[in-house]
Amino acid sequence: MPGRASIVVVLNARAGNASGDARIDTRIGELFGAAGSRAEIVVLQAGQSPADAARAAKEHADIVVAAGGDGTVSGVAAVVAGSDAALGVLPLGTLNHFAKDLGIPLDLAKAAAVVAARHIRRVDVGRVNDRVFINNASIGVYPGIVEKREELQQHGRGKWTAMVLATVNVIRQYPGVTVRIEADGVQRTWRSPFVFVGNNEYAIEGLRLGARPVLDRGLLFAYLAPRTRTRDLPALLLEALLGRVSRSGALEIVPATELTIDPARTRRTLVSTDGEVVTMRAPLRFRISQRALQVVVPRA
C-alpha cells in the first residue's frame, strides 16, 4: 500500500467488548497515533448499517477498518471485496472468529499496529445468492435460534443465557429440514437439523479445532448432521455453529466450488450469514470468490 494510505475506522461502539467504554472512539484514534498513523473514526449510529458506512468510507480510504464483531466485519467486507481498498480488523466482538483465523491480535493496541503496518494478503469470501459471508452461512435450526435469542435479549436476558434458552426452546420443536444439494454437478438429498456452509474448511479435530487453517483455498465446505440422535443435537449444534465442529463421525462434509441448496416445500427460507439472519428465496446458490478480499494482516 502507499506510504500515506488513508485509514477510516467503521466503529460499532455497541459491540461486545466495546459497549462498556464511553471513550472507545477516542482511544482507537490514540492507538493509531501511537502506531504512527492517523485514522478517521466513523461511529455507527443506532440502526445504521456497517455496509452503508463502509460504502462512504471506501470513496476516500485505502484501508477501511471494521471495529466490532464478526457481523460488523462481514458488513464492511461485503463492500470492500472486489475493490482496490483493503479491510482492516479491530476485534471488538465476543467471538471474533475471522480475526482469529487471520492471526490478528485480540489486543486492541496490537491490532491497530497491524493495520498501521499495512501488510496485505488476499483471502476468499463466500456468497449465498447476492450476500457475502466471511465465516459461514447456515439454514435449518440455527436461524430460528438466533431470532429467539434476540427476542429474549430484548426482554433483558444476557447474550449467553439467551443463547442457551433459545437453543433448548427451538430444538425441542424443530422437525429438521430436507435439502437437495447439488455440489459441482452431483446432486444428493439429505434430512438434517442444519446445513452449515463454511468459507474454506473448518478443522474438526486436533489442536486447531474450530479454526480455518487456510482462507484462500477457493473451496466451500458444507457440513450436515443426517445421523444425529435428538439427545446429541444440542451439543453438536452448538459446537458446529460456534466453530467447534468436533464430532467428525456425526457429520457429512461436502466440499465444492459451487453449491445449490434447495430446501423442500418452501420457496423462502431463513439464512444466517455470519450470525445475521435474513430471508432468502430458494434455491440458495453458494459460490466462492477466490482471493477477492484484500485484508491487512500481521507479517508472517
Report on the structure:
Helices cover 28% and strands 33% of the residues. By secondary structure, the protein is α+β, with helices and mostly antiparallel strands. The chain folds into 2 domains: 7-118, Rossmann fold, CATH 3.40.50.10330; 132-289, Tumour Suppressor Smad4, CATH 2.60.200.40. It has a 6-stranded antiparallel β-sheet.
Task: Provide the number of structural domains.
Answer: 2
The CATH topology of the largest domain is: Tumour Suppressor Smad4
Helicity range: 25-40%
Structural class: alpha+beta
Q: Kindly provide the name of the CATH class of the largest domain.
A: Mainly Beta
The proportion of strand residues reads 25-35%
Low-pLDDT stretches: none
Count of alpha/pi helices: 8
Between the first and last Cα atoms, what is the distance in angstroms? 17 Å
Mean pLDDT: 86
Rg is 19 Å
Sketch the major β-sheet.
Answer: 6 strands, antiparallel
How are the strands of the biggest sheet laid out side by side?
6-5-16-13-8-9
Q: What is the number of E strands?
A: 16
In CATH terms, what is the architecture of the largest domain?
Answer: Sandwich
Produce a short descriptive summary.
The chain is of the alpha+beta class and 300 residues long. Helices cover 28% and strands 33% of the residues. The protein has helices at residues 24-34, 50-58, 70-80, 97-102, 108-117, 141-154, 159-173, 233-241, and strands spanning 7-11, 39-43, 63-68, 86-91, 120-128, 131-133, 136-140, 177-183, 186-192, 194-199, 220-224, 252-256, 258-263, 268-273, 276-281, 284-296.
